[in-house]
Amino acid sequence: MSDNFDPRRRQVLLGSAVALASTSLLGLSPLSLAADMALPDYVNWKTPEALIVHSANTLETKRDAIGTSIVTSNEQLFIRNNLPPPPPSIVADRDAWTVAFKGVKNPRSISLGELKTLGVTTVATVLQCSGNGRAFFDHETSGTQWATGAAGCVLWSGVPLKTVVDAMGGSLGDLPYITSTGGEELPAGLDPKSLVVERSVPLRALDQAILAWELNGEPLPLAHGGPLRLVVPGYYGVNNVKYVKQVAFTAEQTDAKIQASGYRIRPVGQGGAPDQPSMWEMNVKSWITQPLEQAKAGRVRIQGVAFGGAKEVKNVEVSLDGGKSWQAAPFVGPSLGPYAWRPFVLIVDLKPGDYRLVSRASDVEGNAQPEEELVNERGYGHNGWRDHGVSIAIV
Amino acid sequence: MSDNFDPRRRQVLLGSAVALASTSLLGLSPLSLAADMALPDYVNWKTPEALIVHSANTLETKRDAIGTSIVTSNEQLFIRNNLPPPPPSIVADRDAWTVAFKGVKNPRSISLGELKTLGVTTVATVLQCSGNGRAFFDHETSGTQWATGAAGCVLWSGVPLKTVVDAMGGSLGDLPYITSTGGEELPAGLDPKSLVVERSVPLRALDQAILAWELNGEPLPLAHGGPLRLVVPGYYGVNNVKYVKQVAFTAEQTDAKIQASGYRIRPVGQGGAPDQPSMWEMNVKSWITQPLEQAKAGRVRIQGVAFGGAKEVKNVEVSLDGGKSWQAAPFVGPSLGPYAWRPFVLIVDLKPGDYRLVSRASDVEGNAQPEEELVNERGYGHNGWRDHGVSIAIV
């Protein structure tokens, strides 16, 4: 990928209106069109200036809309729904929502009202789509061409999943997966397994998973999975099942398509299969959010965000010369815990000219962002620092 | 104040429609009317369900709208403006906003664009009006009858004030006050000193004050003082000067009315004067946010918020019997630093009956909430735990 890669270029190169129309049908998003798309009704409360509307179910936060105040507001937070959300009636009486538990000693359904009396915790997490950064792959990838904005850092309140499981006598033995099912309505006449949002995560996720009913201090909006969402801190977005209606401890991963063949790391051109790595724990990542195009010569503020994914981020470095030399960039503000991101700011004196700014984060276990991405068919998990850089002109 | 005090009762007792009309003129707010008032245009992006509209310039967050996710969203945050906000044109080109510095070695005006290149920090603070809790005083107080909702916990990004002062050669000696002026337009024909929002804080506030341009990850909204606001962590809201256009180090406190006689702790019936305590550092405080009226017998979740004010909060206790006996209530979620509030949750088993729930916080220096308020003419600084309790029925 060249130093001057612009994710919009791919669409521009497609050229004709016919090509644009066909890419839309494929789920690709010519940003020149997207910029003019209005917010879908169910998220009409979001901030249009901060978002790129790829489709009704895929909205990306603009790169420079991310600030340094750590949290991403509900109004700026990206949307990625695998299916259209259920009707608003499900949040009319939030406490009446029920989730069924299976694979526990005393299986039963439990209402959100009762869940709220079992325990409460609050955790900050980076919520990130597996395909964030997909636009930077060289090969043609199907799926939304996210650059950096299928990610945000938010605060959730809910009950630890372990607390609920304990209240049901604990999970049965030898069931190594937690399999959760979303409450989306499935279109009739199609194989449910091909559509249902049902995800399995390894049992180790029980350490940090919560059932969340609040987002950034507000009742969890329907668009983000309200009234109740499974949140697995440190895991990619797809594992955070919205409108969760069932949580089961299972011997095997679900055979739903979204798990069995979807969200797998596989060689380009190869089909998805259960023996390929699943998009579970996130990797260490960072990117610069400002400046993106140009800045005045003199003191220049370079800012961005860095996170460790499944492990806490330790530090981040910035390069002004495309990765030849690096300097530490300080974090600003309090740490919101191991699963949050940390804004960083580096202020430097720059003379007029062209610069390639890149950032590289490391987690507390010494994992650093690689220079290049792991190439894979669907364009998942891109954390290569080179592609995430920005070329700016100092004038 | 009785155990069953309801801040709405005062208005209800006033009885007639004439009385209601007259209290409106006085700035009192019959909540039964307020509940039907629409959001003023300049804050039409806020969440109406979460707010009580006392007037166009005073909006209160409903007590049970405060959740456990620590941050108060911009959409839920209270509004208290001493004057109507300036026109939206001042946020059209945010970086062009200038603030004049005086009382420094090299006094000059500096643009927001330049401020952003001097340094960046992020701090969480409780933003609270001096009159929060005014509704709980026994004597008649003029001013908005806030109960608990003239407060929120938010994240600010900006430059430390000290960094800016250092860049101007430091402050001149023997100038013990920082005096800041807001950019509101003053109505013609009236004495500017009687209206201008100009506040002096002691020089010690330089340790933590920032000039903020971002609120909860978004560009600081005009309604909350954008494009630039002086934020003095740990200080009452009035000191956090909106649309700040001048910061001066001064030998004396300003003689503007809002400082000289306003926002002073004074005996009931006495006028305001510069020798009375000014509303600077906040005191330790807490209140329960849920439940407020009733809950089902069995496991009941009691939640609230606690903060130390100018010092970090250390712990909070809850009483189920109006203060006869107490038990520790655990905080939930990460600490966002000494100036933030901490949500607490206590889950208890309750039998049917009537309960008086109260909470009492202490800061790290051992200051605890008093049982009663310090009675004062204008109803400022109420942190007495008794009045902040709630009477609930367990059914």
From TrEMBL, chains A, B:
PROSITE patterns associated with the record: TAT
Keywords, ordered alphabetically: Metal-binding, Molybdenum, Oxidoreductase, Signal
Pfam family of the protein (one): Oxidored_molyb
The keyword Ubl conjugation belongs to this UniProt entry's keyword annotation: no
Signal peptide: 1-34
CC cofactor: Mo-molybdopterin
PANTHER family in alphabetical order: SULFITE OXIDASE, MITOCHONDRIAL (PTHR19372:SF7), SULFITE REDUCTASE (PTHR19372)
Name of this chain's protein: Sulfite oxidase
Source organism: Pseudomonas taeanensis MS-3
